[in-house]
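Q: Convert this sequence to structure tokens.
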Amino acid sequence: MRHHVSNPSRLEAFSDGVIAVIITIMVLELKVPHQNGLAGLLSVVPILVVYAISFAFTAIYWVNHHHLLHRTEEVDETVLYANLFFLFCLSLLPFFTSYVLEKEIDSFSVALYAASMVLTGFGFMLLRLSIGRRLRLADKLQSQDAVVQHKHWLSLLSYVASIPLAFYHPYAALSLIALVTVIWITPTAGVKPKQENSPSPRS
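A:
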């Protein structure tokens, strides 16, 4: 028998704690430049850009995670394990961020960084699908949910495309990753609910 948790608040509180730790670890990777003055600050601009992308990626997933969990009033084991898998994928981001910085944003490190984005996006998709199943059982699935899911798949494909792109233009790959991340600032940005077809008035 499948056990149900009547309230997803514990899951959300646990996830918030993990995500907060992930962001803290990434902040600790930032180092003060050895060179003084403006030249020293300019030398770490690429590092700050990569950190900003990673921070935005994590923070926006937190916003979307919050938005998604508030759609359901109960969670089951499928949702719990999908959430754990998502958090595991996201927890790898500080390592890949540090790897990119240590390797000075070379092609291979950026490709690995993009691969981590794909993995995390896939983990969140599993969470989205598991909660979508709960919403379907509760008859709370909305018409725009399918549109958001398509948007998610397109984002995953864009992250996948950034992997081979990294071997030719690492900074272009990072730009693509940043662009895909930004479009999720608002979970339903660019998504319009389908209008119900109303009967046309009789002449």
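DSSP finds eight helices and no strands in the chain.
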